Amino acid sequence: MSKSGFAVVDNLGVALAAVEDLVEGADEVERPGLERASREIARIIASSLDPRVQWAQRILAGAGVDAGDMVAAVRALRSHASGLGILEAGVLVRRLNEAGSAVQAAGRRRPGPRPGPGPSAEGGVDGRPVS
Fold first, then answer.
1. Please, are residues 78 and 84 in contact by the beta-carbon 8 Å criterion?
2. For residues 89 and 56, what is the distance between their CA atoms, to the nearest angstrom?
3. Angle at 60 between CA 57 and CA 66, to 5 degrees
4. Helix (H) and strand (E) counts for the chain?
5. Are 51 and 96 in contact (CB under 8 A)?
6. Residues 3, 14: Cα–Cα separation, whole Å
7. C or N: which end of the chain has fewer Cβ atoms within 10 Å?
8. Contact 84/123 with Cβ under 8 angstroms?
9. Which pTM was predicted?
10. Do residues 38 and 23 lie in contact, with contact meaning Cβ atoms separated by under 8 Å?
11. Cβ contacts of residue 82 below 8 Å, gap of 6+?
């Protein structure tokens, strides 16, 4: 946390996983707010895609084509934008699938051991007392 009181998070996937960890241990009062936060972070992740990938996502959704079907997805993109090459269309579909997989994986994450320093028996990190 900075002196201003704000924490800067540059990896929303990590933030989503942390909130989902909190959901697992939350009581019935805290749970709805944490679940809402989790959904909002997932929405932000999905909306922060590269604009070209967002374009591909809109085209495929409008055409009713699943991005998981690479051949059909490339065809749909190329039919919508005649100057789009096979390679470029394939890269867009691959990136769209990767982004979707990252959001889905973050949404399925379960708590487990966290890497790095954690609280010690004294209550601080790495044996340092909490001040």
1. yes
2. 8
3. 100
4. 5, 0
5. no
6. 22
7. C
8. no
9. 0.48
10. yes
11. none
Q: Which two tokens stand for residue 61?
A: 């959704």
Residue whose C-alpha is closest to residue 73's, from 105, 50, 104, 58: 58
* Residues recorded for the chain: 131
Structure tokens that stand for 114 in this block? 């966290």
- The amino acid sitting at 99 is A
Burial (CB < 10 A; 0-12, 13-18, 19+), residue 29, is exposed
Contacts of 12 (CB under 8 A, 6+ apart): 41, 44, 45, 48
DSSP state of 83: T
Q: Is 119 helix (H, G, I), strand (E, B) or coil?
A: strand
d(CA 115, CA 113): 7
* Domain extents in the chain: 11-48, 50-102
The pair of structure tokens assigned to 4 is 């201003």
Amino acid at 125: V
pLDDT 10s digits, 52-108: 888 999 999 999 999 999 999 999 999 999 889 999 999 899 888 877 765 555 555
- At residue 67, what is the residue type? A
Q: How confident is the model at residue 124 (pLDDT cuts 50, 70, 90)?
A: very low
